Amino acid sequence: MPKKIVKFIATSFIIISFLNIYGSIHINAVTTATVYLKCNIDIVEKGEEIELSFYISDQKTAAYNINLYFDKSKFEFVSGPENINIQENKIIIVWYDQLGGGGAKQGELGKIIFKAKENGIANFVAEGEFYSEKGQLIQTNFEATQVQIGREEGNLKEQIEKEQGTNTQKDNANLQAIRLDKEGIVPDFQTNVYEYDLTISNDISSIDVLAIAENPNSQIEITGNNQLNEGLNLIKINVISEDKTNNKIYTIKTTKTSNIELANTNLEILAIENTLLTPPFDNHITKYSTEVSNTINKLNILAVPENENAKIEILNNEDIKEGNNIINVIVTAQNGITKREYQVNVYKRNAQEEANYIEEQSKQKEKLEEAYEIEKTTLMNEQNAREDNKNVKNYIIIGIISIITVLFIVTMLIFYKKRKTHQKG
User: Fold this and answer.
1) Contact 152, 46 (CB under 8 A)
2) Are 324 and 201 found together in one domain?
3) How high is the mean pLDDT of the chain?
4) Residue 311 and residue 303: Cα distance in Å, rounded?
5) 3-state secondary structure (DSSP) of residue 23
6) Mean of pLDDT values over 78-85
7) Which of 71, 87, 266, 425 is the most buried (most CB within 10 A)?
8) How far apart are CA 249 and CA 194, in angstroms?
9) DSSP class of residue 275?
10) What does residue 171 show for φ and ψ, rounded to 5 degrees?
11) Integer Cα distance of 53 and 58 in angstroms
């Protein structure tokens, strides 16, 4: 049997044991988390490779098993983590925290490399089970992703029939997906995100846009994607609900330039002192959340642009109130035209929540200290046992040497007496 299969089976057995042990103790599921897939590029040519990453947000996981399904007629598996097994169009991924919860993960969990085989649209779908560091089953929502293979003219239009929405609510004016024949749209599409950024070179005069509504009977109007001028262009997708009572506008702020770097609005670092962002920072994600102490009125925010000549402006960071606060981090590119806005929803705990938080932290600290003392005592006992065993071995060795020495002396005395008796005779 191949070593990789043996290792996979062993890992699976360990994680199943982990889940069974903790599952028998903790039955209730914890707060809902989202597991989502993301490709490093949305449009790829035949023969090119993509990186498919899978993430978990809102919760930490100490053990999981994922089934990742892909279209094997469109993509072939190239490489991935060691803890995987491949069955036809399914990749099984298992993992558990060997530190017993101390190494629980949040954010990116892993990457898999695929190679494109045939033109068209390929779906990647995930399902599975995730467990917290306390062994609780995490109630998980899964978000799939799609990748377009091939950039032939008209390729986007051919997809409309294949990607019709299924929500028939008459007042629904949401988009289900946006597809472009150019790469680089930021952030990744989300139904409730209405502004996106795109930078293109001067040789591009138009962009094919495919917009798919959740309700297939909604009306979609796309403007601004042809005869693009140098500088800032606004591509607008107006979605009008079936009953004409609602409309929503999605805007792609497109900068056409001869120098892409001058239009760079990416952040290299976004961090807040003494707190963590959810999800973990990624310059393709523009919306984050975090929670802070009731004693904090202003955040120390570190925002560093990829282009050191870009300008950073931080808004609404003064006098943070209890509850939700929206902090805006605006990046203006070196060209002075292109802008991108990152948002952080900061929740400030009230006095009672702060007291509960401190109490919970104190309990967690006590548990950690107790666990540390138990581990310390265990290690000391093991060390003492090793020393005792070592001493016993030393005593045995000394005893054996002593016995051998006595036997040798007795033997020599007997020999000496016999010799002396023989000489007298």
Assistant:
1) no
2) no
3) 83
4) 10
5) helix
6) 87
7) 71
8) 7
9) B
10) -95, 15
11) 17
Q: Are 51 and 75 in contact (CB under 8 A)?
A: no
Tokens of 84: 């995987």
- Distances from the Cα of 53 to the Cα of 40, 68, 70, 398, angstroms: 8, 11, 13, 62
Q: For residues 196 and 186, is the Cβ–Cβ distance under 8 A?
A: yes
Question: How long is the chain?
Answer: 425
Question: What is the predicted pLDDT for the residue at 170?
Answer: 92
- Residue 36 CB contacts under 8 Å (≥ 6 apart), including other chains: 54, 55, 57, 142, 143, 145
254 and 280 in a single domain? The answer is no
Among 120, 104, 250, 107, which residue's Cα sits nearest to residue 176?
250
Indicate if the alpha-carbon torsion angle 372, 377, 382, 384 is positive or negative: positive
Q: What is the pLDDT of residues 184-206, one digit of tens each?
A: 888 888 898 999 999 998 888 88
How many structural domains comprise the chain? Answer: 3
The least confident of 135-139, 144-148, 160-164, 372-376 is 160-164
H/E stretch holding 175: strand 175-180
Q: How many angstroms separate the CA atoms of 99 and 97, rounded?
A: 5
Yes or no: say if 135 and 21 are a contact pair by the CB < 8 Å rule.
yes
Tokens of 360: 């919970």
Map residue 6 onto helix, strand or coil: helix
Q: Which amino acid is at 240?
A: I
Tell me, rounded to whole angstroms, the distance of Cα 40 from its chain centroid: 13
Strand blocks (E) in 12-74: 30-39, 43-44, 49-61, 63-70
- Side by side, which strands form the sheet with 90-96? 43-44, 145-149, 120-131, 63-70, 90-96, 84-87
Tokens of 144: 């799939």
Which domain range does residue 97 map to?
1-152
d(CA 299, CA 220): 41
Strand order in the sheet with 287-292: 287-292, 339-348, 323-332, 311-315
Tell me, what's the pLDDT at 20?
46
Query: Is 203 found in the same domain as 99?
Result: no
Name every residue whose Cβ is closer than 8 Å to that of residue 263 and which is 6 or more positions away in sequence: 199, 255, 257, 333, 334, 335, 337, 338
**pLDDT tier, 151 (very low <50, low <70, confident <90, very high otherwise):** low
The answer to whether 298 and 319 have CB atoms below 8 angstroms apart is yes
Longest dimension (CA), the chain: 136
Q: Phi-psi category of 316—alpha, beta or left, where left has phi over 0 and alpha has psi -120 to 50?
A: left
In a domain, 77, yes or no: yes
Q: What is the CATH number of the domain that holds 286?
A: 2.60.40
Q: For 2-6, 248-252, 376-380, which range has the lowest pLDDT when averaged over its residues?
A: 2-6
DSSP 8-state code for residue 261:
G
